[in-house]
Amino acid sequence: MSFVVGLTGGIGSGKSTVAEAFVALGAGLVDTDVLARQLTGPEGAAMPALIERFGPGICAADGSLDRAAMRARAFADPGVRRELEALLHPLIRARAEADIALLRTPYVLLAIPLLAEVGRQAYRLDRVLLVDCPEALQRRRVMARSGLTGEMVDAIMAAQASRAARRAVADDVLDNSGARAELAVPVARLHDLYLRLAQAKATGACRP
Fold it and tell me: Are the C-beta atoms of residues 109 and 27 closer than 8 Å to each other?
């Protein structure tokens, strides 16, 4: 079985940038956000159950999930968000495990933005890496890339786990408050660690 590192972090923390750096060094990557988009795309496996529960108004013209409409409902009503997650998360987990099994890389990063919310025990993880940065920086990054209003970004961040909660589930914390070039050294250090841990798991040796 692959050595799996759960990669998590709040919105705007730079998880994708960090993941790219690890992949460049030879790590495998499975992204639960990508899987969620596949499951909720046109003819996606999750769409029948979502339509049955939330009605046809959540569909875009092409039959995919209208993410803006669903986001508005989910943030307006925590119960809707919980139901949405209850429908999607089992499908995402199953798809993630299948994709991980296909990879032949030394170890795999499993990107799970909401890991602190769903609980580490929900996935078969050997290690958890948190990508972290100050909340003010998260907010600026999200507004710059998405065009969302400050109020919407604040609502998204408020609905996510706190920095303290994310740190509580992490084995490793990578500070991504600086420039992209500053990631090279800490990513290389963690990559070497994960290679050693993966080898130890494969051989049944003690963890270094």
Answer: yes
